Amino acid sequence: MSEDIFGAEAQKFWDKGFPVVPVEGKAAIPSGWTGLLGGIPSEAKRTEWLEKHRTKNIGLLLGMGLAADEILVALDIDDDRLVKLVLCLLGLTRAERRATTSGKRGKKGVTIFVRTRKLTKSTTIKGASGLGNIDFLAAGKMTVMPPSIHPETGKPYEVYGSSILDVDFADLPEFTDRQIGLLKATIGSEHAAVIRGGKSTHDAGLSLVAVLVRAGATDDEITNTFIGLLPEGYSGDSLKELPEWIRSAREKGFDEDTGEKGTLTQALVTVATGSEMILFNDGDGNAYATLPHLGKSVAVRLGSSVFSTWLRHLALKVLGKPASTGPVKEAVATLEAFALFDGPTLPVYARIAGDEEQVVVDTGQKDGSVVVIDGIGWKVASDANYHFVRGAGFGTLALPIHGGSLRGLQSFLGLDEQTYHLLVAFLVNALKPHGPYFVLLVEGEQGSGKSFFCEVVKRIIDPNVAMRLRLPEKPQDLMIQAKEYRLPSFDNASGMSAEMSDALCALATGGGIAVRKLYSDGELYVMSYSRPFVINGIGGYANRPDLMERAIPIQLASMPEGTRKTEAELLVEFERILPGILGALYDAVSHALRTFDKIEPPRHLRMADAARWIKAAEGGLDEEPGAIIDAIATAQNAFVVDRVNDDALVMMIRRIVKPVGFHDYIGELYIKIIEQDDAKHHRSLPKSSSHLAAQLRRMRPAMAKAGIQVELIGRDRKGSKVSIRFSDPEPSRPG
């Protein structure tokens, strides 16, 4: 047989609408493969897989929709002794079959394909007394398909019954939560193994019948269970005696409610799982659900008030009675366990998601609609293959329209060409699906409208009730805000610590922090996010080179007296032009997706990856090539030079060593600095010669832009040496 497995078979599955992926042994090769369940990969992705992985195994993703409320799942039976039992319960052993057998066989046991309700979750049905397990594989699971090679036997998997490619889905057997319960009751009983052995079956048979009657099995289901368990060639009387065993068990009341069922908590769990809700987890210990009225793309935390309120409403609507706090909490806890242990693991996003082929924006609309942007254009859709979390105060975006222009934003805000280019650069940057990101630093005197300017940016990208936040003092508080908001906007900053400046740099590029979950234990919780963000202030709040080189700096001029409008008047006008602005911005993002791979990164900017995305969007903005990138480089250079020249250490160095320079030990330079009469008034000056060396090392690239060349030239027994000389400031380097 040819080893060209994936290459030869994948297209057959895709043609039938099956989501399949290349597999190494039994492990899927693509990362994030559970997110591919919603549809067939793009043509480019399929071509890539066929070229790279032709000889690999082929895996079928389970959970694909067969009808409005049914999905394709599988029963993976790892014990050959249990195959007949499952076939009997599914009605696949009858002379006149009501369903078609379709599956595959590997090293042992078989896998049988069935159809079930969308909300039925994966679970393991455990066998007792030496019997094997049966894995019920639903959404988020995968099974390796024939003719893939089994990694242990080295032989190909075989089709069992009919190939799934040849089956009408309506002919597959239906498998329900009820049947899962009956299988659990059967093979989880110690009596099943005795009956399977075919000897001394009387007492075991009586006991198993009692178990099945208590589990709610019908007479036919009990009969099929015994037929499936008894060995081939069995000649005893158990099947003849079975009707009397069943009658006796029912007369003794084994099928009566013991009082353990029917509680309000159980009823809440039942009506919730019977709705169109889908449970899953994010792989980080958090449970989520999609709710029918919000659409498939909006994820709600199970511990949130939104979910509890929905559950209360469902109880009133379906059960006809209100649910108190206790049962609701118990039901939520049960559903959380289902989501964490039986549900698929899927990533969640705040406002924006995507990859190299598309960007998806959560509009915040009540119906869960999203904007899907790809290399062809954009459209408003009812859902997408991503799950979005709506944090506290999550706002609604206007629906975009075609034919708008970002120049309307320039006119509305009264921006010069340079500032307009910088604003557009940040807006495009903020719609990049993943980091790193430039940050927007807005400065201006009182009355320059900087707070309103930043609110406009926030309304375009990530509207929220909390439009203006205070810059937190602790890095962990910053990461908590990043978890809730796609675009944090910090208002009226007056300064920041070195620790916070470093944390902001990490937020822009995708770093994280680790903190203890509780003060009483040593377990760590890692928070890692990458976000674009906005900070505004009068000036001087950002002065460390690392943050400055990640910035798009904007300086706003004061508005002339008599020209100001109220914010209410401005917002009315802004809401009128916003749909066209969004449409034009999404057009630019579409152009970036289409051309990104063809664009050479602007290597004169530190944030080359982020700058490459912006440069790729320029063609969709009707701008001259390089105009926006040049604006960033020019603004950054001027910003860094201004900040460096205002730095206390730089002013001291200019005073002490200019124009002849300095070529001596760092300790000698430190002594000269602290001997200055006003040195004690500058808290930012280094407190030791080693601190001075570290500060010079950190500031050296920025100081070069201001015409101060610093070279650390080694050390001897007396200490480290430094050379400082003055030159013309470095010019900005346009792309």
SSE layout and pairing:
Elements: H1 5-15, E1 20-24, E2 27-28, H2 43-52, E3 57-61, E4 65-67, E5 70-77, H3 83-89, E6 102-105, E7 110-117, E8 123-125, E9 134-137, E10 142-145, E11 158-161, H4 177-187, H5 190-197, H6 201-214, H7 219-229, H8 238-251, H9 264-273, E12 278-281, E13 287-290, E14 298-301, H10 305-319, H11 325-341, E15 348-349, E16 352-354, E17 358-362, E18 370-374, E19 378-381, E20 387-389, H12 407-413, H13 417-430, E21 439-444, H14 450-461, H15 475-484, E22 489-490, H16 498-509, E23 512-516, E24 524-528, E25 534-537, H17 545-548, E26 551-556, H18 567-595, H19 608-617, H20 627-646, H21 648-657, E27 662-665, H22 666-674, H23 689-705, E28 708-716, E29 719-726
Parallel strand pairs: 14-20, 15-20, 21-25, 21-26, 22-25
Antiparallel strand pairs: 1-2, 1-3, 3-10, 4-5, 5-7, 5-9, 6-7, 6-11, 8-9, 12-13, 13-14, 16-17, 17-18, 18-19, 23-24, 27-29, 28-29
Helix pairs in contact: 3-7, 5-6, 6-8, 7-8, 9-10, 9-11, 12-18, 13-19, 13-20, 15-16, 18-19, 20-23, 22-23
